[in-house]
Fold this sequence. Notes:
With 499 residues, the protein is α/β, with parallel strands linked by helices. The chain has three domains: 9-131, no CATH class; 147-387, ANL, N-terminal domain (Rossmann fold, 3-Layer(aba) Sandwich), CATH 3.40.50.12780; 392-495, GMP Synthetase, Chain A, domain 3, CATH 3.30.300.30. Helices cover 32% and strands 22% of the residues. It has helices at 9-31, 33-41, 52-55, 63-68, 91-102, 117-129, 151-156, 158-162, 186-196, 215-224, 234-249, 271-283, 403-410, 448-463, 475-483; strands at residues 131-136, 146-150, 175-178, 203-206, 229-232, 261-264, 290-297, 302-305, 313-314, 320-325, 339-345, 356-362, 366-370, 377-381, 385-387, 392-395, 398-401, 415-424, 434-442, 469-472, 493-495. β3, α9 (186-196) and β4 (203-206) form a beta-alpha-beta unit. The chain starts with 8 loop residues before the first helix and ends with a strand.
Amino acid sequence: MAISYQWTPEEQREYSLAKMFKYIKDYVYPYHPYFRKLFRENNIDPDRLNSYDDFRKIPITGKKDIMEDQKAFVLQPGNEDSPYDVEEISRKKKLWYTWQTLNTRYLRDLYGKPRSFEERVRQTGAGEWLPIHFHASGGTTGDPVQSCYTNYDLKSVVPYIAGMMYLFGWEPTMRALNMYSALPHLAFFQVIFAEFTVDNGGAIFHTCGGRAIPTERQVRIAGSMPFDMYIAIPSYMTYWLKTAIEMIEGGEARKPDPVKIAVLAGEPLSDEYRDKLKGQFEKIGSPDVEIVEGYGSTELKAAFFECGERTGIHLNPEFYFWEVLDPDTREPVPWGEPGVLAFSHIDWRGTVLLRYWMGDLIAGGVVWEKCSHCGLTMPVLRPPIGRARRDFTRIKGVRVLLTEFQNALRRVEGVESFQVIITREDEGDQASRDRVLVYVSLQPGADEEMVRVGVTRQLKMDAEVSPDRIEIEKPKKVENRLFERTGLKADWVVDKREF
């Protein structure tokens, strides 16, 4: 039985919890090296998991746990060569593979090569367990986390997640321009999944990023054929639109047909950021574009989206169990209250996590209710989203939310792009005074001195910190600064101090 999005929140939570307990009993405890060991060390009996209080006995999992042995987080039946204490495939499952083989395409030989029935059964079983796709995080927070998917994932789980793009108005007849870099990370492959695992996934042109197809060439492509949707990371979308505006005004490119939807994920999207993008879209002839925010991670193995602009990000309750926890006590907070998001996989194969601490502080909380926009009931994540630890720091004795630097600078008239660097007067002395350096590029016609005054005033007003130096630079130099480290996400604020 599948979940219904017309059920009440209570019915959905009960279903999600029950499905997870069965999954833990049938798959996680027998075949997951890390959690099998963790359950035994903490005297957790999977047969006695009956309530959320029981579930909370499972310790929180973090990135550090994964990095110690990533292979131990992959579901894997045991055999004589296995380095882990996991069970062998049960007789019941072997009989199931035999039945599947008798009733599926695996009866056919591959490309005319004869195969025994035993070989076909083994292939059926391998489809559930053998990882066939891998990707990693962008590495922006240190060593990358890897996730792997099996054939089962790509056929039985991923289509239901990727298909949620229909919530925000995607139709098979539409065309999309995917601007994500062709790197082994979720942001790029989530779009691939949506195109190839969902029935009638739609037509998508993959630019593979600015290093594969230069931004100027992408702008010309956008002007040569109609696209209904742009897909990008917000910082690159800003740069792409800036380039498009300059090329159109300079007669180097045609104005694209009006785009209906911009799907942006990978960075927080504040109201100031959204307003800046709206203004840029209007200049290229898309005044009615709907900006839809997305949220995902390598650990999640999927991404989720709003069903419309500013409706909140809709989370899947069938293949995930969601928690919102206090950032300090790690105890559950009421639905709708701010907290850190944690999740558990349900019915996935390959890499599997339970009670994984995302580290993302959901300032608007997560509500579980019927959406007034799409009419469906599910958990809805309400931005803004920030890091519970990393996005806060102390500068000159003041506790600062780093995103406030971004929002403050976007409010300054005449600022085109920017980067803030936090350092010390003496970088080798931890007791040395903090310094805030701001690098800014200007919009055409902007007065340099007025921008300097505006930056100083706005940072003091919003973040209670005065900049020590403001440098006006060419737009290209600022853009190079932003993407120098990863080539993927813009480093709007860089903290170079050692703690």
